[in-house]
Design a protein that fits this description.
Number of domains: 1
Shape: globular
Number of strands: 12
CATH class: Alpha Beta
Strand order of the largest sheet: 1-4-5-8-9-10-11-12
Strand content: 15-25%
Distance between the termini: 36 Å
Largest sheet: 8 strands, parallel, barrel
Structural class: alpha/beta
């Protein structure tokens, strides 16, 4: 029956009614906070390319963990920025590396769920996510290093390792390595990662944009291994393969330009589907807020709720701490 018998405004008459009949609720427990831990840093340092975010020294990681627990944020995603880089990213899989130390500290100070990024891009002089040879990024040689990184994180106490290199077979290589070493309880959150322009602020923050290195080819982007943003079918195949190889959670990245991918993955697959509101998405909103064009609280709550509504089980976002405060305040 139509108007005047049906009046949908009855369901929007006040805030309590709107809360009762809403399809989706964004909660503090839906949030994971990304943290950049920088080796040899003494005090926090502002990240110029990501407004409102800071590099953390190792000594500050415990305070961040305690803040997350106080606010009701359940997890951290750790990224490391080493003092030194080389062509093979050896610091990434050192048991004494910056992320490995940060994991131990977070687990000592809190009960947070610790996710760790498993990749080489922040650790290599050329900025690519795998072993770079004269023929390009070598998939199978990279798998061995990704497995070593994951093992070093598991030994330090990570709950979930999160391979983001987008190498074929990376989940299987990591699952096999973890199981062989007795880390069968360590989970894998696999990235379904598109070759996106929205990673710019992150790459500036961790100095991981592709660079020229003598004796190696200069490959300007990651389009040979990250997914083509024009293809939904490739994303579904990647997710299906990752699940078959042992992924416990799938993370879709970026989030807002890929709500259709999140929704389709939620429809097809019976595993938790997470989403990453990446640095470019976050920074666009923050810059618009700084210019007085958007209301910060309302724009972030709307964008994150849309990601949740599309089917995300939880969301990695740089706004996690602010959003948790807003949700607590009501």
């Amino acid at each position: 029956m139509g108007f005047p018998i049906s009046r949908l405004r009855r369901l929007r008459k006040n805030e309590k009614i709107r809360e009762l009949v809403s399809d989706v609720h964004l909660d503090k427990s839906d949030l994971v906070y990304p943290v950049f831990v920088k080796e040899d840093l003494i005090n926090e340092g502002k990240i110029a390319s990501i407004p409102g975010q800071s590099y953390s020294p190792l000594s500050g990681v415990g305070r961040i963990a305690e803040k997350c627990e106080t606010l009701g944020v359940h997890g951290l995603l750790l990224f490391g920025i080493p003092r030194e880089k080389d062509v093979l990213g050896r610091k990434a899989y050192s048991d004494g590396g910056i992320v490995q130390k940060a994991i131990r500290l977070v687990k000592k100070k809190s009960d947070l769920v610790v996710f760790t990024d498993v990749c080489l891009c922040q650790y290599t002089t050329h900025g690519h996510c795998g072993v770079l040879t004269k023929d390009g990024v070598n998939n199978d040689r990279t798998l061995k290093l990704l497995a070593k990184i994951a093992l070093s994180h598991a030994r330090a106490g990570a709950d979930f390792v999160a391979p983001s290199a987008m190498m074929d077979g990376q989940v299987k290589a990591i699952r096999d390595a973890l199981d062989e070493e007795g880390f069968d309880d360590t989970g894998i959150m696999s990235y379904s990662k598109f070759a996106s322009s929205f990673y710019g602020p992150f790459r500036d923050a961790v100095d991981s944009a592709p660079k020229r290195v003598k004796g190696l080819p200069y490959i300007t982007d990651r389009s040979t291994y990250q997914m083509d943003f024009r293809s939904l079918s490739q994303a579904m195949r990647e997710i299906s393969l990752d699940i078959d190889e042992g992924a416990d959670i799938v993370l879709i990245k970026p989030a807002l330009p890929y709500l259709d991918v999140i929704k389709e993955a939620r429809r097809r697959f019976n595993v938790p589907i997470a989403a990453y509101q990446v640095s470019g998405e976050y920074t666009m909103l923050k810059l618009a807020v700084e210019r007085g064009l958007l209301d910060e609280k309302r724009s972030f709550l709307e964008s994150l709720t849309s990601i949740k509504r599309s089917g995300a089980s939880f969301i990695v976002t740089y706004a996690a701490l602010d959003v948790a405060r807003w949700l607590s305040a009501g």
